[in-house]
Request: fold
Amino acid sequence: MTENNNKTVKWRISLLVVFATLAIAGFLLSITKGSVEIPLSEIFGAIEGNSSPIYGNIFMNIRLPRTIVGALVGMNLALSGAILQAIMKNPLADPHIIGISSGAGLAGILVIVLFPAYEVFITPVAFLGAMLAAVCIYILAWKNGIRPVRIILAGVAVSAFLGAGISGMMIFNSDRVHNALMWMVGGLSARSWPHVAMIWPYSLGAGIVALLSARYINILQLGDDVAKGLGVRVELTRIALTAIAALLAASAVSVVGLLGFVGLIVPHGARLMVGSDYRFLLPASALLGIALVTVCDTIARSAFAPVELPVGILMAAIGAPFFLFLLRREL
Amino acid sequence: MAIDVKNLTIQLNDKIILDGVTVTIPKGRVTSIIGPNGVGKSTLLKAMGKINSTYQGDIFLDNVDIRSIKRKAFAQRLAILPQGMQAPADVTVRQLVDYGRFPYRSWFSSHKKEDEEIVDWAMEETQVIDLAHRQLVSLSGGERQRAWIAMALAQKPEILLLDEPTTYLDVAHQLEVMEIVTRLNKDLGLTVIMVLHDLNQAVKYSDYLVVIKNKIVFIAGEPRQIMNEALLEEVFGVRGEVFTSRNGGRILAPVEVVK
Reply:
């Protein structure tokens, strides 16, 4: 009996090792492939400071920061989606669908369009936008507890409302539409060290708290009443976790734009493989998120060279059919 | 006394559910809360279990106001299984029962040997140890209910609250659950408080009955003393007969609705 149990735990741990390998492979793929191929030997050279200057320059100033941003964005969105799916009691919740992204989006576009001089503040402002959207949806969906259908509907309504704001802003400021549009699609083009600096503190802080919360999330999955009976302060925990999810999503979205579906695909894929125990599901989601975004970005920028596709387009092209597949399967 | 409820009034959505309930639940006994549908039996149970904390009046656990007890400390003393419990499809029995150790863990603490032993013990007590590695979805209703009771037991409580633990089970599984509950009461001295739908089960398995009607406690006492034809008619609106069985227990036979 215990053997059986150990086996499943061992199985899940070995899956995590596989995912970690995938994440590292995606990371390496992303720093070596592109319009210029950098051999791995040159990368190790660059780390030691004795590579050829061209390779070293491309590696240190373009590939490496871009890959780090992509990895952190993938991790944040996947963790955010995984948390939201549990605390909203909704398998289809992700930062995009429940409006956190559009909240961050509208706030970000406000900065891009109206106050371009203050673009450094885009992350905190987008964070505020995400939190406001999350709180709105929470209040709108609250009526003696949370019902999944109400969350989805409130999320759609709030997203539509915020979307109107985004569109209006772009129409009245058509000279800046291109920037805003690129930002809305979500891409990693020209992302460099300043963006790494924007995102990593959020990834680290919120990521650690998220991983530590796994046990609480597990209990919340048993329903509010059972969780209270087991000693969880349910409303407080849910609000705190919503804040963490919003923080993770906002930091990602404010750096790369409204990258869709990572937060939906990755946690679901991870759940199918490692199960619903969040002590395994959260790290699995984080690792798969890193792998997916780094690999997709590598494809997006090299498959159609010299045209570089924003990674958001590729993600949506994969994400939308997957979403439909889930709908067919689960509802 | 295990739990003292004093002048409890609960309002949900502007509707008064309970209006000045005062009752004392005896320690170390099996108490059942009965009454017609929608009279607030579950609401009373949830208030005693600190799930619903918006009420007027007071509830005392061993003379301490439960509002002043921290949630985790409370969960170490009282376990409650509400109605309609659900868990993710792939949760195993062992994992579920292990969740019962949650109140004893802090943010960083890992699994302790002691927890393992208590989880094993809880599964043995409710006879689900052989199902430990089965997923909850693959179990029958009765087995699943026993697994949940094992989870509550892993909390090592003094008091166990159950909301209609036998609803939706076939009769053999109903009796099985009731027998486990009464055995836990006898062997461990566990105070059991349940909401029950089936009057015969309530009479047979409880030491004490609390009858709720019109938002208040209509009567409370030992089944033999309070359960009779008049109570059936007044509280439940049915005419029926109450027999005394060979071993002195009461058997209720509702016959017709009082017009």
